[in-house]
Amino acid sequence: MNTDKDARIVQQQYNQMAPGYDRRWQHYTYPTLRFLLDWADIKPSEQVLDVGCGTGELEWLHLQTQPQQSLHGVDLAEAMVAVARQKCAGFPQVSFQVSTAESLPYGDRRFDVIVSASAFHYFPGPLVALTEMGRVLKPGGRLVILDWCRDFLWCQLCDLWLQWRDPAHRQCYTQPELHQYLRQAEFQVIAAQRQRFGLFWGLMIAIAQPIMATVEPQIIPSLIDSPPD
């Protein structure tokens, strides 16, 4: 696995997509990011990191109700980060940096909450990325991951097609596979759910904490969760 080459391919693709990304994908990003924010339940005093922040749309949405929130985002595509910085330019407590998920530019135990939306399937080193998120997360903090879910038939087909046609695509995971990665990175899953958005998109969300702050996990069924199709 050549992680540097994989990262460059994703970087180049999203640099090209950045100018029209929000307009093209708003039908997907708005409902999914609102869903993530509802689950994350971010408190005003919390320090938040968004891994794979793209154009900063999650930050923009959250700032509409919490304009004083301290938010930080990283993305490996410079053009996406440039859009995010412009979008949130009126909020000095919000910052964005160009970085991979596998090498975050922050000190240990910096953040109360880490979120990642629709990015995990691009990470060339998912276990390395999760371990790095654990490094910068405070004890008792929480990690919230929302991503495509291969338990849904449409996502299985989409995953196969993208692996054939899209060099930037890495792979989608099932809910058990994501949870296994989290356990290997010394996280405890405390809540999880699979959820469909529209006709095609089948996603999964997981909230996890470092293993030192364990509680009983809750696998929360949704109306379409048993079984996905």
Topology, please?
Blueprint: H1 3-17, H2 21-40, E1 47-51, H3 57-63, E2 70-75, H4 78-87, E3 94-98, E4 111-117, H5 126-136, E5 137-148, H6 153-165, H7 175-184, E6 187-197, E7 201-210, E8 218-219
Parallel strand pairs: 1-2, 1-4, 2-3, 4-5, 6-8
Antiparallel strand pairs: 5-7, 6-7
Q: What characteristics describe this protein?
A:
38% helix, disordered C terminus, 25% strand, eight-stranded mixed beta sheet, 229 residues, globular, 7 helices, single chain, Rossmann fold, 8 strands, alpha/beta
Strand arrangement within the widest β-sheet reads 3-2-1-4-5-7-6-8
Distance between the termini: 31 Å
Choose one word for the global shape. Answer: globular
Give the C-level CATH assignment.
Alpha Beta
- Give start-end ranges of low-pLDDT stretches: 222-229
